Amino acid sequence: MGKCSGRCTLVAFCCLQLVAALQRQIFDFLGYQWAPILANFLHIMAVILGIFGTVQYRSRYLILYAAWLVLWVGWNAFIICFYLEVGQLSQDRDFIMTFNTSLHRSWWMENGPGCLVTPVLNSRLALEDHHVISVTGCLLDYPYIEALSSALQIFLALFGFVFACYVSKVFLEEEDSFDFIGGFDSYGYQAPQKTSHLQLQPLYTSG
After folding, report:
1. So which residues have sugars stuck on them?
2. What is the pTM of this model?
3. How does DSSP assign the chain, residue by residue?
């Protein structure tokens, strides 16, 4: 029962991670955020690997999944620092999230709750084929939305890491005990015996 509860809990957290990652991937696609798109794709693959390892009792897959979660926590911590401009990080310095391929920002910048977008006509700040907009009235600015989204990812990743370590430890202990007691012999397994189709004939000797 304990093993099942641990596995079921890990699968549930993996499913939550998958839903949160897909939701985030959609909004990053809408905002042309290529660096987060790549990271989200790798994260989705790792979560699927974690689900497969949990269902199929593969401890190695869970170890890889747990190792990825460490990197995932670090990435999301960087995103929080980036959008909140912690230290030397600044959103106006460069466009890290788009690999410097476009001037797009987060999709939430223009589509946040309560945001009112007003085009600025004849602005000298506008580059070629671009326009300047003014965003006002937002109930929550987009840097805080992105930071909250990353904080949610960190929360799920920490719980997933703990349960992945626990379940993989259970799997490894079961594998060790299985090898120690002789594999299939403990379950009454017997190898099939070869049957002979030769018929024995009586041997007569003359006295």
Report:
1. 100
2. 0.76
3. -HHHHHHHHHHHHHHHHHHHHHHHHHHHHHTT-HHHHHHHHHHHHHHHHHHHHHHTT-HHHHHHHHHHHHHHHHHHHHHHHHHTT-TT--TTT--GGGTTS-----THHHHSTT-EEEEETT-TT--TT--EEEEE--SS-HHHHHHHHHHHHHHHHHHHHHHHHHHHHHHHHHHHHHHHTTGGGGGT--PPPPPP-PPP-------
